Amino acid sequence: MGRGYSDVMRFMSAGAGITGRGILDFLLPPRCLTCDTVTGHKGHGLCGACWSRVRFLEQPWCLRYGTPFEHEVGVDALSPRAIAFPPAFDRARGACWYSGPARDLVLGLKFARRRHLALSMGRWMARAGTELLRDRPLIAPVPLHPRRLLQRRFNQSADLAKVVASLCDSEFVPDLLRRTRHTRAQVGLNATERQKNLRGAIALTPDAGSRVFGRPVLLVDDVMTTGATMAACVKVLKQAGARQIDVLVFAIADPAGMAREHGAELKDKL
Ligand SMILES: [Zn+2]
Question: Which domains are delineated in the chain?
Fold first, then answer.
């Protein structure tokens, strides 16, 4: 067979493939979710250059905080931070550090209303949280205050939680928790100020108590910084008798990076 034949076959099979989704890809080729370069593949949604800049959180990691260790350690090891400052939740996991393209995805979803990003982000999260999803927990987003919900028109954490729940066949409970009062933005506050800002700001929705009792709950948010918001949610869920409370976020803020942004004082508290 000459080269002409294989060219014809390639042309014919390409023609046969251009149906439905194929036509859509031909007219609107898949683009990188952060830099908009044509990727030519559907995969994880990022081009090679952006993908290589994502700082994924890989095992071995701290059992409680989900932050990776630089050296090989035993199973279920705890980081110095988890020993010094045990978190309110049982286990936290995140897909990546909050930097570079991962940060762009978070900001794109939250502020640019690019809600389709939640699909790829939720897939990454489900992979990172495999061990948390085994018990089929109730999956609930960290709530937004109604005023902020009105401004933004959607809760980005609820979008992510919905995708994660659909991937592991767990129950998605978008209204498990609610904000009882408006709180000032957490950006620029240190850990103590964040806790104070959130005191009494989160409650269980009136009929949610009976659903939570004795059940594992997975709280979902886009980013975890000091974990103060999570701690406020966990407190409420513990009071309602939740059996296990885990946390799954898209990105975890790197304490060293946060310290560079907010000063050395914060580094000690993270
Ligand atoms: Zn890219």
Answer: 55-269 (3.40.50.2020)
**pLDDT tens-place values along the chain, 270 residues long:** 344 444 444 444 444 444 555 666 666 778 899 998 888 766 668 999 999 999 999 999 999 999 999 877 877 899 998 999 999 999 999 999 999 999 999 999 999 889 999 999 999 999 999 999 999 999 999 998 888 888 888 999 999 999 999 999 899 999 999 998 777 776 677 777 777 777 778 999 988 878 999 999 999 999 998 888 889 999 999 999 999 999 999 999 986 655 554 444 444 433
Compute how many other C-beta atoms are within 10 angstroms of the C-beta atom of residue 116. 13
Ligand 1: distance of its center to the CA of 154 in Å? 26
CB 188 within 8 A of CB 263: no
Distance 51 CA to ligand 1 centre (A): 7
Say how many Å lie between the CA of residue 74 and the centre of ligand 1: 36
Cα of 124 vs centre of ligand 1, distance in Å, is 16
* Angle, CA of 66, 69 and 74, to the nearest 5°: 90
Distance 105 CA to ligand 1 centre (A): 11
Contact (CB, 8 A) for 63 and 217: no
CA 49 to centroid of ligand 1, rounded, Å: 6
- Kindly give the distance from the C-alpha atom of residue 39 to the centroid of ligand 1, in angstroms, as a whole number: 8
